[in-house]
Amino acid sequence: MERLAAAKKKTVGTKQTQRAVEKGQARVVYVAKDAEERISSPLLRLCAEKGVEVVMVDSMNELGRHCGIKVGAASAAIIE
After folding, report:
1. The domain defined by 2-79 carries CATH number 3.30.1330.30
2. What pLDDT is attached to residue 22?
């Protein structure tokens, strides 16, 4: 999680993260364990197809906090 907090470039949110993975820009994707499955499943499948490392985070609130936002986030990524 320190890598995410210290990253200069990152995405926050599933739509932005999914676009980054599709474009080959995502290096590491973080997904909250308590995110709705209908939201996280397509992203997890895409990461598996593209060979992108996935790190599971305990909660959306924790992920949001590490991204520097005051609300929860279902997913985030470190991009190049």
Report:
1. yes
2. 97
